[in-house]
Design a protein that fits this description.
Layout: E1 2-4, E2 11-14, E3 28-36, E4 45-53, E5 58-60, E6 62-63, E7 68-72, E8 84-85, E9 87-88, H1 98-118, E10 130-134, E11 143-145, E12 150-152, H2 166-179, H3 188-214
Parallel strand pairs: 7-10, 10-12
Antiparallel strand pairs: 1-2, 3-4, 4-5, 5-9, 6-7, 7-8, 11-12
Helix pairs in contact: 1-2, 1-3, 2-3
Length: 227
């Protein structure tokens, strides 16, 4: 934040207001986090297993059982958790970040698919934590896996809205699995095969996700137990 002299244009003062928070530790416990999903996912209220960090009593979109975490990559002042781990002061996120909630549910479903259907432990087969970055760049229409993390844009509101939905998240997580298994390159025939396999896996993941939603409670909330 800058304070500018309106007459001279001189910078009077400046303060870095980007807030950072410590990463989750083992000093905590799984906690159900509720919130509203994106309109593209029905705009419903849902539950997802996250983490209550005891050292600061914050609620993170972070899951030690399914091995995922959500990170808010935005630097915009709209978000209280900008440029740090997605978190809130309460376990009820309400409508404060539908993209982050949707991304968490989608990533959780994607990892469950590979574990339950293919007996794969995490994206790399070693149960490493996979990070999904929401709110990537400004008006970014796209999503990608960069061989380390997943990035999802909010869209431009014209061509597309937020891409933090099941089919896109499932597709990118599938690329991570392909990267750590077949190791296909991004060009030529191998690239075409990689995209095809990621699409096929994403479709299968959606079928599993819909099955999970059918098991939801009468309120429309859905959450799977830790264990």
């Amino acid at each position: 934040m800058y304070w500018i002299d309106a007459q001279t244009g001189d910078v009077i003062d400046r303060v870095d207001r980007i807030l950072h928070i410590s990463a989750p530790t083992t000093n905590g416990a799984p906690a159900i986090i509720s919130g509203i999903m994106l309109d593209g996912e029905g705009g419903i209220s849902t539950n997802v297993w996250g983490w209550n960090e005891h050292s600061n009593n914050k609620f993170y979109l972070y899951n030690t059982t399914e091995h995922w975490e959500i990170y808010n990559a935005s630097s915009g002042i709209k978000w209280p958790d900008r440029a740090t781990f997605a978190h809130r002061e309460t376990d009820n996120w309400e409508e404060t970040d539908p993209a982050a909630i949707s991304a968490a549910v989608a990533l959780d479903s994607s990892l469950r698919y590979f574990r339950e259907v293919h007996n794969r432990q995490g994206f790399d087969g070693q149960n490493s934590i996979v990070r999904l970055n929401v709110h990537h760049k400004l008006s970014f229409v796209g999503s990608f896996w960069d061989h380390e993390q997943i990035y999802v844009g909010d869209g431009d509101g014209v061509t597309a809205n937020s891409l933090a939905v099941q089919d896109f998240v499932g597709h990118e997580l599938s690329h991570a699995v392909i990267d750590y298994s077949a190791g296909l390159s991004e060009s030529g025939e191998a690239g075409a095969l990689s995209e095809s396999f990621a699409d096929i896996f994403a479709a299968n993941i959606e079928f599993l996700a819909k099955k999970m939603i059918v098991k939801a409670t009468p309120t429309g909330r859905h959450g799977m137990p830790i264990g």
